[in-house]
Amino acid sequence: MSRLRAALFDMDGTIFDSKIDLAGLRRDLGLPRDGRGILEQILELSPEAQGAGLAALVAAESESAARGEMIPGTNELLAFLGSRGVRCALVTNNSRASIDAMLSRFPLGFDVSLSRDDGPTKPSPALFHLALARLGVAPEEALAIGDAHLDLIAAHAAGVAEIVLVSPQPWVMDFVPADVRFRRAADLHEARAIIDELLC
Questions:
Q1: Nearest in space to 171 (alpha carbons), one of 198, 146, 200, 148
Q2: What is the pLDDT along the chain (200 residues), one digit of tens a residue?
Q3: Domains of the chain
Q4: Spatial distance between the Cα atoms of 9 and 70, rounded to a whole number of angstroms
Q5: 13: alpha, beta or left? (left if phi > 0; alpha if psi -120 to 50)
Q6: Which residue from 149, 137, 88 is spatially nearest to 113, judged by alpha carbons?
Q7: Which of 49, 32, 43, 180 is nearest to 120 (CA)?
Q8: What residues are paired with 90 via a beta bridge?
């Protein structure tokens, strides 16, 4: 029997095509692409700019939840994991309102779903620790699936056994620590093949 008992999924860019132009939003807010999450950057702005930035982010997320689409292979991967007895959690830096809106459109049946309203955002490992505690699974029995360095860093810090990055953007790789081991997949179908091998 495999030691992997849980899979921790990122949302935007991993299973959900959010349609959010984060690069454009950063430009509008005067924020650099320096490897930090956009929420962390906004919270460092002056009070006035912070309010405007948060409002712009929430508006973009709300539009995303209404317009975004599932990334091909999501349902198949979740069904495959379920058939193998692997419990699944959604762990995102997005808001609770966005998670709930997305899941109302696409009921994916996650065992646990956590947002930035539940604790410190990635790259902090806090949400991964919380997800694992709620699932009753140890980090060494878990797999993380994301698309960005923030997912990778958080999962590694949480002690997650296996990490799969799915179709990361080229700029993301500039912020991936050289000493962190992970597997890379072109899409969720390839991710499923990788996970199938891990479960053997």
A1: 148
A2: 358 999 999 999 999 999 888 889 999 999 999 999 999 999 999 999 999 999 999 999 999 999 999 999 999 999 999 999 999 999 999 999 999 999 999 999 999 999 999 999 999 999 999 999 999 999 999 999 999 999 999 999 999 999 999 999 999 999 999 999 999 999 999 999 999 999 98
A3: 6-17+69-199 (3.40.50.1000), 22-67 (no CATH)
A4: 13
A5: left
A6: 88
A7: 43
A8: 9, 113
| The pair of three-digit structure tokens given for residue 78, joined into one six-digit string | 């979740």
Tell me how far apart the alpha carbons of residues 20 and 44 are, in angstroms, rounded to a whole number.
Answer: 21
**Distance in angstroms (rounded) separating the CA atoms of residues 180 and 176:** 8
